[in-house]
Amino acid sequence: MCMADELERLASVARDFELEADDDFVDPKLLAAVIDGLQGKLCRVLDRAKKRGDHLLAGQTACAWVSVTCLMSRTAAADRLCVGEQLGHLPRIAAALSSGQIGYQATAVICHLSEQVGEKREYIDQEHWIDYARRFSIKELRYLTYKAREVWDAEGFEKDNEED
Question: Which of 24, 48, 82, 133 has a CA positioned 20 to 30 A from the CA of residue 39?
Answer without folding.
Answer: 24
